[in-house]
Design brief:
Blueprint: H1 6-37, E1 57-61, E2 64-69, H2 81-86, E3 92-94, E4 101-103, E5 115-117, E6 122-126, E7 139-141, E8 146-150, E9 163-165, E10 170-173, E11 185-187, E12 192-196, E13 216-218, H3 240-291, E14 323-325, E15 337-340, H4 352-357, E16 359-365, E17 369-375, E18 381-387, H5 395-406, E19 416-422, E20 425-431, H6 438-443, H7 456-474, E21 489-491, E22 497-499, H8 518-523, H9 537-553, H10 561-565, H11 569-582, H12 592-608, H13 619-636, H14 649-652
Parallel strand pairs: 2-3, 3-5, 4-6, 5-7, 6-8, 7-9, 8-10, 9-11, 10-12, 12-13
Antiparallel strand pairs: 1-2, 14-16, 15-19, 16-17, 17-18, 18-20, 19-20, 21-22
Helix pairs in contact: 7-9, 7-13, 9-12, 12-13
Length: 662
């Protein structure tokens, strides 16, 4: 047979030889790993089979293992360092619940690793220092082993750390001054730590349960103040009587001085208490004036949040932001209690008193209520939403619904941490997100300046985040978001999109005269614009479609887009993006691949904004379409397909994985 193009044949031959070798790299590494931890041949791994179908291989990408979960299989032996470090595409690695022993090896080759679970094994030796060089690590779980020695100070360099569980080991020394804003879960209990717990704003949010079982540890969380002990010196037996006389004289001098000092301290304490009481009265009066209209800090109409609060409205960056202190009026019902919601939230080391003493900055006001940034005396920051109607719905219904919302935990949802209920007051407490909202990303700090369409790669990433969070809400029977818009999508520590204000529409009194602003109204599906109509899953899908069009065009929906443009929406979107290209601020590349991805996004948006609710896809279908488009984009993208705009290339290319869901 004559070969017409020898060069192409040569390239094809080389590729066919090299490609299997690239894919088999992980195969050889896993088999080498199996040889050291599986003497009983529990893992059914065969070289001639597809490694992506092997037991414990949960995810692959382009033939490389990205998620390896081998749990509760009674594996033993030690980990092979060379084999592990060849698996350099791993995002999640778990050997939880086995009997693996020896030291934790050097893992600096796993530079993509985000979650590491080595808990409930027999590992010994010191803390694996090389883990602190893996800057993408979010979840680190080493609990239930025999690890010892000090925790390296370099642990504070893991800026994305979200979960740190080191309990039930034999660690010694002091706990490093952890101060990563991303840290939400911490447990170092039942070790041999000593010294004082460093009071950083992050550590101060955790309570006794995170530190218990360390006998020589002290600090505010353990209700055990640290005291310095003076060294004791041996008594010299010579000239005892001389020293005895001198001691008597000293006692005669010291006792009156000490008594005098104590009296002064008592008087000073009484004076300080009086001053504080007077200041509190003054402060309460001022706060009351603010609530009664004496300068609330947020503008009229619907206001959102540009600094990471939970916004009710669709407009960022125009808030007065007046600071003060919380002074919630408890009415005749007396002081209520702060109820923490989800598992682990009880570790949040703040109380109702801390919240009431916090300085408050108004972030926004809307149809559900007002939103505040609360800075506690410890430096810890939360977002507090004060509901507008404290008597609707009835108390039991309110509690039942807020506890359902409070149990939701997902990387793309802003968690509801706690709620407060008194006769005349209802508060919801959320995490504070300092990176702002999706609204501020698209439109800048002012609603009328800086708006621009995002590059399609950014649109795909944001759309996947939002769709994933929305699907998680819909998987809970009867639960909807009800108020989806760009100001209710906040940006997390890795600039992931996180939904907030979900499930709050049942707290709005349908008889309330307060009306939504124009932008909020047109996010809603036509069948739900009457506030008395219940919000449905299909209505959330419609809002998602409007949000997607906002990302593609940079235009806030101040009008009914479907009524205005109808079937011409795709043409309108392309014309807006072409205008940006002509102005030199290119939102998308003009190549064929970019046009294909833009078309895929438009198809999703058009399906979502169908005027017939039954014709709209479910969020499960929407997420599948987006992931299919994003997978194709990752496979075909090149350097010309990345235009950072306000979203850096680094943020765009961040892979996703589920928090603690392995």
């Amino acid at each position: 047979m004559e070969i017409k193009n020898p060069f192409l044949f040569f390239i094809f031959t080389i590729f066919s030889i090299v490609s299997p070798l690239v894919k088999s790299g992980d195969t050889e590494a896993l088999l080498a790993l199996k040889a050291t931890i599986d003497p009983s041949d529990i893992l059914d791994w065969k070289k001639e089979t597809d490694l992506c179908q092997w037991q414990g291989v949960k995810e692959c990408m382009k033939g490389r293992v990205t998620k390896l979960v081998i749990e509760n299989l009674n594996l033993s032996g030690t980990l092979d360092q060379n084999a592990l470090n060849q698996l350099d595409q791993l995002r999640v690695l778990s050997f939880k619940g086995n009997s693996i022993s020896g030291e934790i090896p050097d893992l600096n080759g796993l530079f993509n690793l985000k979650s590491l679970f080595l808990n409930s094994n027999n590992f010994s030796g010191e803390f694996p220092v090389t883990v602190t060089s893996l800057h993408r690590i979010k979840v680190l779980v080493l609990a239930g082993n025999k690890l010892s020695g000090d925790i390296p100070l370099s642990l504070t360099n893991l800026s994305r750390l979200y979960v740190l569980y080191l309990e039930d080991n034999q660690f010694t020394g002091e706990i490093p001054p952890l101060n990563q804003p991303s840290l939400r879960f911490l447990n170092v209990s039942n070790n041999q730590f000593s010294g004082q717990i460093t009071e950083t704003p992050v550590i101060s949010r955790f309570n006794e349960s995170s530190f218990a079982g360390n006998v020589n540890l002290c600090g505010a969380q353990l209700h055990n103040n640290c005291t310095s002990t003076s060294p004791s010196y041996p008594i010299i037996p010579e000239n005892v009587s001389h020293h005895h006389k001198r001691s008597k004289k000293l006692i005669i001098i010291i006792v009156p001085v000490v008594v005098g000092i104590l009296i002064l301290c008592i008087l000073a304490g009484i004076l300080i208490a009086c001053v504080r009481k007077r200041r509190r009265k003054t402060r309460d009066g001022k706060s009351k004036e603010v609530e009664d209209g004496g300068g609330g800090g947020a503008g009229g109409g619907e206001e959102g949040t540009s600094r990471g609060g939970n916004g009710d409205g669709g407009r960022d960056g125009n808030n007065g932001g007046k600071e003060g202190a919380f002074s919630w009026d408890q009415g005749s019902g007396g002081l209520g209690t702060l109820v923490f919601c989800g598992p682990g939230d009880q570790q949040m080391n703040y109380s109702l008193e801390d919240l009431l003493k916090a300085s408050a900055e108004t972030l926004g006001r809307g149809i559900i209520g007002s939103t505040y940034k609360a800075v506690m005396e410890s430096g810890y920051i939360v977002t507090v939403k004060r509901l507008r109607d404290s008597r609707f719905p009835r108390l039991e219904e309110f509690r039942r619904h807020v506890e359902i919302i409070g149990r939701l935990r997902h990387p793309n949802l802003v968690p509801l941490r706690a709620y407060f209920q008194a006769k005349e007051e209802r508060l919801l407490v959320y995490d504070y997100f300092p990176n702002g909202s999706l609204f501020s990303l698209v439109h800048g700090t002012r609603a009328n300046s800086g708006s621009k369409p995002l590059h399609w790669t950014s649109c795909l990433k944001i759309a996947e985040d939002v769709a994933t969070g929305l699907l998680h809400i819909h998987q809970n029977p009867g639960l909807t978001h009800g108020n989806l818009k760009s100001s209710n999508v906040l940006l997390g520590s890795d600039f992931e999109s996180c939904l907030t204000d979900y499930g709050l529409m049942p707290f709005r009194n349908p008889d309330s005269p307060e009306e939504s602003g124009a932008s909020s109204l047109f996010y809603r599906a036509p069948e739900c614009r009457d506030i008395r109509r219940p919000v449905t899953h299909q209505a959330d899908v419609y809002s998602f479609g409007v949000l997607l069009l906002e990302l593609l065009t940079g235009k806030t929906p101040f009008q009914d887009l479907v009524q205005e443009h109808g079937s011409d929406i795709p043409r309108w979107v392309r014309s807006v993006r072409e205008e940006e290209t002509e102005s030199g601020d290119e939102p998308a590349s003009s190549n064929e691949a970019s046009e294909e991805k833009l078309g895929a996004l438009l198809n999703v948006a058009m399906a979502c904004v169908s005027l017939v609710p039954e014709n709209r896809p479910t969020m499960k279908d929407v997420l599948r379409m987006i992931r299919d488009a994003r997978a194709e984009a990752q496979g075909s993208s090149n350097s010309s397909d990345h235009s950072p705009g306000r979203w850096s290339d680094t943020i765009q290319s961040l892979p996703r994985d589920d928090h603690l869901s392995i």
